[in-house]
Amino acid sequence: MDNAQKFDIRPGLWGSWVALPDADRTHIREVLEALSDQPPERWPTAHLKRLSTPEPRYLLEAPGDLRVVVGRSPDGRLTILDIYLQEMLDRYGAPKSEPASVE
Fold first, then answer.
1. Is the pLDDT reported for residue 3 higher than 80?
2. Beta bridge partners of 66
3. Which of 16, 37, 56, 71 has the fewest beta carbons under 10 Å from its own?
4. H or E segment at 61?
5. Which has the higher per-residue pLDDT, 84 or 4?
6. Using alpha carbons only, what angle is made at residue 35 by residues 29 and 41, rounded to the nearest 5 degrees?
């Protein structure tokens, strides 16, 4: 893992992360690094939705059919919590989302 990376990956998810094509990892990395220093209220909502969960969780629509669930760790760093294919969400039920507020 790049020590300069501005986000974490849930330990059990490392295998899924490294299995992604380089272009997908690069895109996700760029998006999360751009978001890491901003409060969620300022995040763009076009491809990022607030999930209806007790703790703040967000669903990032990544390239193709990838969907990435992101939250913040106790120290405030963004953390990738899960990676899904849209087909799986369609088949087994998608997490409920609501638009993130933008002020």
1. no
2. 85
3. 37
4. strand 58-61
5. 84
6. 150
